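Exercise 7 asks you to align residues with tokens for two separate proteins.
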Amino acid sequence: MTAPIGLVADIGGTNVRFALVGADGTMSAVANLRCADYPGPAEAARAYLQRAGAAMPPRAAFCVASPVNGDVVSMTNSPWCFSTSGVAETLGVVHLDVVNDFTAVALCLPHLGPEDSRPVGGGTPQPDGTIGVLGPGTGLGVAGLVPARDAWVPIPGEGGHVTMAAANDHEARVLATLRERFGHVSAERVLSGPGLVNLYTALCRLNGRDAQDLAPDQITDGALEGTCPMCRAALDLFFAMLGTVAGDLALTLGARGGIYIAGGILPDMPDAFAASDFRARFEDKGRFRGYMAGVPARLILHPYPAFLGLAGLLHEEGPRVAL
């Protein structure tokens, strides 16, 4: 790797992941730190650089699992609250970009190689078509990417908090059960790690069974290993509902460039996802079924998609990525 030109960080509610980026775009020294061990991102970055035995590069790009609406960033699921300009001054960097985490994932899309994603169903992307991206993990991230002359411009948003719609009577009963607990049932309430638990719990209640205290990975294990029918039902419903939301995103954006699925859950079970009802539900849009059949969907397999997007920002003055 060439000498680092920048520091990138993916800041979540529990962990922050760092890496150094060279002038040729390669990444090195990827490491995770616990957010709770540091008062803020500047202190965590200094600790990371000390462990990596590296000096602070001249530029940095961070993404955060929360809205970014100005200089001050207040994390949604973390006590961290920081000033972008203050962090830049503390670290001594020439320029610091801070964007939403799924803005960073959207910005990675032009940099993905053929081996970095897997098709889910058919469809052919339009070369200059708008692209949508969503991904279930701790929450549900949603963003878009729009072509503009010789660059791609991201559309940040909080689409994970749209109201989850039922596609049939069974889903209506599940969502009604969840409304008794949460009031508003967003897409994130069912399409995330905690959302998978919510689906499992609701299905157990509707079927008169006692729900066990299971973590998301235990539910997926029980589903894929065939040891728990309620876990299997929850995962099947998760896949189908994700198809509904992904299809809605494609229609909303006119995403003829395709829909990409990211996040920390699905890359661990690509075969089960590809064999699920996701694609059928994705295309199940009534009079627009034919339109949807032409929209490709791809599962992102790259281990650090947000870092790819952030690396692009290191060469720009704002969230734009050159073709």
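Second protein for Exercise 7:
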Amino acid sequence: MKFCWATIRVNNMEDSLKFYQEIVGLKIEKRFNAGPGVEIVFLGDGETKIELIYNKDSTEVNLGKDISLGFEVKSVDEMISFVKEKGIDIHSGPFEPNPNTKFFFILDPNGLRIQFVENKLQ
């Protein structure tokens, strides 16, 4: 079995695209209308894929408080500086549960927790 993608319902497609392109660094793979008032965008490369869905008739997004998406970065400290420069608040962290792992969380435009992880063993 192969993982395909994570789907996120969004309040505003343009705000979400800006976040996932500029902050996370994902590129648009496909973008299309999927019916009246419904737009779908796939972002990512290789095994990292995210599907964003916007429906103008259903803008209430309900995300679980215990769900997050994690992305590996070369340096947590550099990523913290980058997101602060972009005006994004740190939601929690940084945490260092062991000498080889360091991470922190921010929120995407829909309130989904995004984790940036530095794996020092690589």
